[in-house]
Specification:
The chain has 17 helices and eight strands. Helices cover about 50% and strands about 15% of the residues. Bound molecules: 6-chloro-9H-purine and zinc ion (ZN). 6-chloro-9H-purine (ES4) binds next to α3. Pfam families: A_deaminase.
Length: about 325
């Protein structure tokens, strides 16, 4: 039986399974550069973050209408329910769609159509987190924030994702200041492929409340001490780390060391359609590779509710 848990690091575009990609391609008259799902799956051998991102952005060509985004989110929520997910904070990448001529309103309203029914259908409460693509100019993030204005009531926070190295958090100081002023929560990917210094910068310059990945904090003991002291949550994605070669094998994952150090770590799925598993699959794979006992798994599930942007009554109900 899977433990009840919150999913805090999940890119909705990364839940696009090959079968749904081909169904949407047919529905929208889009031609994919792959003959069938079999051929597409062969493209899923990545050497680093960039090689994954190239495929991730290419497949999004099939997402065109509000209904496409609603279908994508509903398919994720149905699977998440089967993996013990009771609360999901869902990333989306508006610039990956607006760059193709799909309006941000189509994306947000489409996703919201599925999220609105999630509690009643699946028992999963949800929030949306709008991510800025850090390999695009800061001006593009600012334009995106402005375009999101009419939809901000549907968005609870902002995040930062895509190619990390060479795109430090400080590049996005201004848009994060606007987000904070609008009352939005703030998170950022940092320390996935980028250095520990990017984690510190995300905290100090962007004022983030959680770090997505954060794996490379371990290279800086002073930073680890701070993350422990301030109990800054780190949303780890173990299967992603292996598939993108941040670590060699799951047996090398430093999760146990991080827990022992007192870090508030959570386990998440990142881009489950691409990385070989949803959130419970990440729990199970870690358990098998590291020999985690039931108590440790319970701690990880409890951490996910502690780290979530839940209101207190719902948090108490879920913990
Ligand atoms: C991502 Cl694994 C990962 N890292 C950074 N940005 C991303 N966007 C989607 N998946
Ligand atoms: Zn991610």
């Amino acid at each position: 039986m899977s433990l009840p848990k919150a999913e805090l690091h999940l890119h909705i575009e990364g839940t696009l399974e090959p079968e749904l990609a081909f169904a949407l391609a047919a529905r929208n008259g889009v031609t994919l550069p792959f003959a069938d799902t079999e051929e597409l799956r062969h493209a899923y051998s990545f050497s680093d973050l960039q090689s994954f991102l190239d495929l991730y952005y290419a497949l999004m060509a099939v997402l065109r209408t509000e209904q496409d985004f609603a279908d994508l989110a509903d398919a994720y929520l149905a699977r998440a329910a089967g993996q013990g997910v009771r609360h999901a904070e869902i990333f989306f990448d508006p610039q990956a769609h607006t760059a193709r001529g799909v309006e941000i309103g189509t994306v947000v309203e489409g996703l919201s159509r599925a999220l609105e029914r999630s509690e009643e259908r699946y028992g999963i409460s949800t929030q949306l987190i709008m991510c800025f693509l850090r390999d695009e100019p800061a001006a593009s993030a600012l334009e995106t924030f402005e375009a999101a204005g009419p939809h901000l009531h549907r968005i609870s926070g902002v995040g930062l994702d895509s190619a990390e190295v060479g795109n430090p958090p400080a590049k996005f100081r201004e848009v994060y200041e606007l987000a904070a002023a609008a009352g939005l929560r703030r998170v950022a990917h940092a320390g996935e492929e980028g250095p520990a210094e990017y984690i510190r910068e995300a905290l100090d310059v962007l004022g983030v409340e959680r770090i997505d990945h954060g794996l490379r904090c371990l290279e800086d003991q002073e930073l680890v001490a701070r993350l422990v002291r301030e109990q800054v949550p780190l949303t780890l994605c173990p299967l992603s780390n292996v598939r993108l070669r941040c670590i060699d094998t799951l047996a090398d994952h430093p999760l146990r060391r991080m827990l022992d150090a007192g870090l508030l770590v959570t386990v998440n799925s990142d881009d489950p359609a691409y990385f070989g598993g949803y959130v419970e699959d990440n729990f199970t794979a870690l358990r098998d590779a590291l020999g985690l006992d039931r108590e440790t798994l319970r701690t990880l599930a409890a951490n996910s509710f502690k780290a979530a942007f839940l209101d207190e009554p719902r948090r108490r109900a879920l913990l």
